[in-house]
Amino acid sequence: MKKIHLPALRCAGLVCASLLVVACGKTPAPPALDAAPVVAKEWNKHGGTDAEQRFSVLKQITPENIDQLGLAWAFDFGVSRGIEATPLVVDGVIYVTATWNKVFALDARSGELLWQFDPQVDRSKAADLCCDAVNRGVAYSNGKIITGTIDGRLLAVDAKTGKKLWDVITVDQSKPYTITGAPRIVNGKAIVGNGGAEYGVRGYVTAYDISNGEMLWRFYTVPGNPEEGFESPQMAKAAKTWNGEWWKYGGGGTAWDSMAYDPELDLLYVGVGNGSPWNQNIRSPGGGDNLYLSSIVALRPDTGEYVWHYQTTPGETWDYTATQHMILADLEINGKNRKVIMQAPKNGFFYVIDRATGELLSAKNYVPVNWASHIDMETGRPVEVPGARWGGKAPYLQLPGPMGGHNWHPMSFNPGTGLVYIPVLETPFVYADDQGFSYKEGRWNTGSDSSMASLPTDLAQFKAVKAAVKGRLLAWDPVNQKPVWQVEHNSPWNGGVLSTAGGLVFQGNADAKLVAYRADTGERVWDFFAQTGIVAPPISYELDGEQYIAVASGWGGVFALLYGGLFPAESDPGVGRLMVFKLGAKAALPALADSNIAKPTPPTSNADVATIAKGKFIYDTNCSVCHGDHVISSGLIPDLRWSPLLVTDDAMQAVVIDGALTSRGMPSFKGNISKDDLAALRAFIISAANDGLEAKLEIRK
Q: What residues are labeled active site?
């Protein structure tokens, strides 16, 4: 059983692991990762603390008194699409973001608006967003609120006034980069990554001085064109694990969400995303590990110096990002206290890794997995199943699919129970080689046949697929690598998680409810109807001796946009709010407006079958990710079947090609959709408007 120490790791660029038998052990008291500057009464960092445990030590609210928990106040954002932010609470003020990066400062006791700041993002950048016009919140440091924007900026505003202090561009804005993740603050630096892998960019992480926005260092996550030289020895070594001319496709590896920091070890941990395109046969013909795709990378936060990495999915070809939430904790494993980092990335395996060295301690699947049989503890690598590498071969129905076994929605670790609470998904997906693939600069490029992502229209097949698509809240024992309890949901797309010392776990869900469960058993003990689905994670804070629970509501994200019409939630879109709860409160939300709006009669078309089929291909590759599979909208954005633009080609051209609505987030597809394409696209949408598919598939209205 082989073990490679840190010096060898730096030379070899590969984390191998020794087999450690994971024994049942008592979980120690909460680790001292954040003993310095943490105020238990506040929630002043994205994950609660640097360790990102999303655990509150507050315990006033318990299973015994939670029936008294009620709404204290709510603040309407005025926007609703894809609210994913974690609120921060500092000095009695809540800072939270909504759609299009708008920042709000609210009195944490009353909900009174103190100030709001609109960074005026370029909404045409919606064309470069894989997964809705979302963001995950702000960072706080030294009297400043720091946030990233969808159009690739990092900016700071005064925490007391909302006045802009500095604003820097972190990306080449001529390329399809975006920022949706929350920055992290370490040693006076704001650290931020970016997104856009599917669109053909090269990922990196950058640190900026919080005092003035000056760039201090940058770490690239994948190598660039060798002819232009490499930025570091790590990039030169990483290039040896790639083949072909990957840089022409960007390479991917965007660090679009998760980070964590250990102040004792002075290590910053960065989660790295998928390859660009997904299909490795196109991106790196001949294979290779393609470092540092799908990896956890440990860096020195003051310099960006590489220390170690662990790659969860070598040669990534399934959109199996390792950008999912990472948690630092101290666990007793095999009778020894270990400083670990834990992650449940998209690939379906739960990893426990020594956070000082990158040594793999254990890995077991936390959801059904059919692409690999297990993780080899000698090598730290997955043992892949024949046929799973779909590129150039027959289509492969796989679990997990690109949504992952766990997506961006944060999990939580409770040091008292020793459990990790994970919002998990089961969303099968058919990967199939795109035989006609040609790279489109600045557009969606996966190398997988997009028609395979479309759900079947046969009723029996649709019901079978729907039954296979699941979501649950899973309580996972990371020491023994096994489930302890689980709660099934009606949809796979549910909110992030908060656990508390009061013995509770809070999670919002697609059915528009914030729910509390017993942390030890999963018993449902309380819920509140929020009027719209909740995907954001809750937080907890204390003021004047009272514990509060806060969560942002606003249905959205990639699953909601793409499949929300075919898998409708028990909620209506259109209500984006911050809701705050405390014991004894009895406020109520305003009544929902009537959403039963009469639909106009769609036009007719004489287009032939071939034209409609061409239009479907254009729709699937350009429009479905926002307007819904089979043109069945989630309701978050306009349903194209009832659009007045369908009347003429010229009306559609004004929006789709000429960009008449870019200021409202509808991008121009000039250069990707021609006038002939537009006619076919219109014919397909008209056909969909008249085909009665919702009734055929028995979809609840």
A: 319
